[in-house]
Amino acid sequence: MTSPYRKSEEIAAPPRKSGEMVYRPRERSDRVAAGRGAIHLFALPAIAGGIVGAMVRVEAGAGVFLALVAANYYRSHKQPADAVVLRVADGELCVLPMGSKKESFRTKLADLDNVAMETKAVERVLDVGANAVNIGMGQLAPNVAPSGDTRRIVLEARSGTHILTKEFFGDAETLEHFAQIRRFLRGVGWTPLPEREEEEEEEDDDDE
């Protein structure tokens, strides 16, 4: 006789995983900007406040300092450009611009076929003007450097594709983020469509 408890354990589906990650394609440049931002946040307001305090009153200088610090702090904490949040809950993936509650994309994990990349080659123009160093090549000196690849990440779902950012970014950095996004999605239970198809083919072969 089959135990009802064992039957209920077999029928019960495993709990769905949830998670969240932030994709910041400008992360490296943001680190540099953060150092500059600290200077602007305190140094420049201090100089301006000191000048006003010396020329007018100390209270006026303090007011200018606090006003500029508050303005710089607000500006630095606005919605970052191109940063998006990938959130998974109840078997669904939701994409939102960072700092916004408005969804830009939503799909079931089972309907997400793949995470891919779009590539665009970018040519760089060299400076061959009068002030540029020309190593004896004269007019034969090239004015276009070898092209380099830029990339952006795309979510491919049954309902269509969704580009995470409009802009293309550096090759190496985008590849790093690409791998992080795929690891995150796998961690919450996602399997790419090609792997799902392979598993189905293996199951069909076993049944035969």
| Overall shape | elongated
* Terminus-to-terminus distance: 31 Å
The structural class is: alpha+beta
Total domain count: 2
Mean pLDDT: 76
Low-confidence stretches: 6-10, 29-36, 134-138
Q: Please count the helical segments.
A: 5
Main pleated-sheet profile: 4 strands, antiparallel
Going across the major beta sheet, what is the strand order?
A: 1-2-3-4
Task: Summarize, please.
By secondary structure, the chain is an alpha+beta fold. Strand 2 and strand 3 form a beta hairpin.
Describe the structure.
It is a single chain. The chain has helices spanning 4-11, 27-55, 58-76, 171-187, 193-207, and strands spanning 19-23, 84-89, 92-97, 105-108, 112-125, 144-157, 160-163, 169-170. The protein is α+β, with helices and mostly antiparallel strands and 208 residues long. The protein has two domains: 16-25 and 84-203, no CATH class; 28-76, no CATH class. The strands form two sheets. The protein has a four-stranded antiparallel sheet with strand order 1-2-3-4, covered by helices on one side. Strands 5, 6, 7 and 8 form a four-stranded antiparallel sheet that branches. The longest helix has 29 residues, at 27-55.
